[in-house]
Amino acid sequence: MQPETLKSVFKIHKETSLFGRYIHHDSIAPLLEKLDKKFVVDVVGKSVKACPIFSITFGQGAKKILMWSQMHGNESTTTKAVFDMLNVFSDDNHDIQHILSACTIKIIPILNPDGAKAYTRVNANEVDLNRDAQDLSQPESNVLRSVFDTFKPHYCFNLHGQRTIFSAGCTNNSATVSFLAPAQDQDRSVTATRKIAMEIISKMNDNLQKQIKNQVGIYDDGFNLNCVGDTFQSLSVPTVLFEAGHYANDYMREQTREYIFQSLMVSIGYIANTVIEGKLYQPYFDIPKNDKLFFDIIIRNTNGLDVAIQYHEKLVDGIVKFIPKIEKISNLENYFGHKEVNANGFNVLGENNRLIEEGNEIDFVVINNEKILINL
Predict the structure, then answer these.
(1) Please, what CATH class does the domain formed by 295-373 belong to?
(2) Which intervals hold domain Peptidase M14 (predicted)?
(3) Digit-coded pLDDT (tens) for 19-62
(4) N or C end of the chain: smaller count of CB under 10 Å?
């Protein structure tokens, strides 16, 4: 599909009941119930707190794709995109029937339901599931591994979200979407398995470059067998990491959601239509690596050092709040702000005109007796 077609398909099929950052079991349960008969919904296990973990399976083809979202409970953008995609496959759309004929797709929409409910990265035992691929110490980790072992996928999609700090290379371009073909060994060898993942990523990048030029990055490929993607890649199953990042002023990740949706459709379509041998992997290396060059706000030209402010997400009474915090007071000439404020040589003060310090949580700053709100 061309970008304009993908945009139109997204607009028609966007799941409007899912919005913002706080997505959990109660958010998706009604959507699972209304899926039609072409989808098989199973409870594949339970979380630490006995919340059900679901899988959704559809398609009849020989090529098997396994994807999972919200392994980290507070990374929900990809879950929204998954349900947008499911709405597409719910329709009797002749343009996608070939995908259903070529592929069988299994999705775990929320692997970490306890973390999703608490809006935390970790599970209820405070374990990062993406560092538990070898120990398999947590019920959620065992659920994923069991599904992997029984389904025997030919491709894996590991769906995540990343912070606003990431740039696409050493540039002032935010990494709106990032990908990775995880390393398969300590030497980060470009193996046949990785080449297949790289080829799929290259095709997704081709589509995104037509819309968010220079805003796609490659995540760090340091090898860690405790990470799920590295483990599955080491088992010779081509695995692709998706990272939903920041688009300008899109703290609800609704625009990024569309780009993840498009990437899912492009990648699945490519798998359905292509015998992927990894021969077209080279463009992967043209995508810049992620760097950490952004803060949410930088106040420049103070009478001293630059001031960096970062939003910290906190669940308060069922709502995700973005709490501004003074992250760094330093010379930040090599960094960028998603928003930048010119202090014109004046002091930057906090409440009661006190000097600000690193670590302060603040809703506003005072510059030349002017109160400037910095919360979202």
Answers:
(1) mainly beta
(2) 42-223
(3) 999 999 999 999 999 998 999 999 999 999 999 999 999 999 99
(4) C
